Amino acid sequence: MTNYTPTPTEVSQSRQQVLAWFARTAPLIRWTQTQSPVGTIYLAVNEHGLCSLDFGISLEDFLNRLDPLAQTEEHDLADYTAQLQEYFSGKRRTFDLPVDLSGMTAFQRSVLQTALNIPAGEVWTYGQVARMIGRPKASRAVGQALGSNPVPIIIPCHRVIASSGKLTGYSAGAGIASKKWLLQMEGAL
């Protein structure tokens, strides 16, 4: 058996074929950033809707969390950023944006869909959410599902607190401090 070493031309041609294939088949994720009172918010949208939102992290960290098999490009997502600006200025209480939760389990989706029903200015407990989805003993699992929310603020997981009234767990921004700020802004605290 002999070892074959491709020529530089063959390597270059192979790379070009792979890049062309990737361009034809890889899904596209468009992303943008916008300024807000909680800092820079990064948003990403795929063909199904908003698939990622985060703040309190670097752009590099945000982009590294996106689907590694997708193409990413910066894009003006004016409809999305406008609704966020309206929210932070107090002109909007809910969002009317398509959201892609396809990467979530059925349980996680049910928890996140239930969180959408919590009105701005109110808080529910993890136990209340668990009862609403028909799983009254699943408070801890509800917390874990909320912690995996790919689009905080849009799906208001910050409106869920411990039964003691304590603010616990928030995976976006500055954690509990961000959760507290959002709840104060909405008039819940």
In short:
α5 packs across α6 (139-147). The strands form two sheets. The protein has a four-stranded mixed β-sheet with strand order 3-2-1-4. The chain has a two-stranded parallel sheet with strand order 5-6. With 189 residues, the chain is α/β, with parallel strands linked by helices.
Strand sequence of the main sheet, in spatial order? Answer: 3-2-1-4
Classify the beta-strand content into a percent band. Answer: 15-25%
What is the CA–CA distance across the termini? 74 Å
Largest sheet: 4 strands, mixed
Helical stretch tally: 7
CATH topology of the largest domain: Double Stranded RNA Binding Domain
Task: Specify the structural class.
Answer: alpha/beta
Q: Which key terms come to mind for this protein?
A:
6 strands, 2 domains, single chain, 189 residues, alpha/beta, two-stranded parallel ribbon, Double Stranded RNA Binding Domain, 39% helix, 7 helices, elongated
Overview of this structure, please?
- It is elongated, with a radius of gyration of 20 Å.
- A hairpin with a 2-residue loop joins β1 and β2 (39-46).
- The longest helix has 18 residues, at 8-25.
- α5 packs across α6 (139-147).
- The model has no long low-confidence stretch (mean pLDDT 94).
- Helix content is 39%, strand content 17%.
- It folds into 2 domains: 8-88, 2-Layer Sandwich (Double Stranded RNA Binding Domain); 106-186, Arc Repressor Mutant, subunit A (Orthogonal Bundle), CATH 1.10.10.
- The strands form 2 sheets. Strands 3-2-1-4 form a 4-stranded mixed beta sheet.
- With 189 residues, it is an alpha/beta fold.
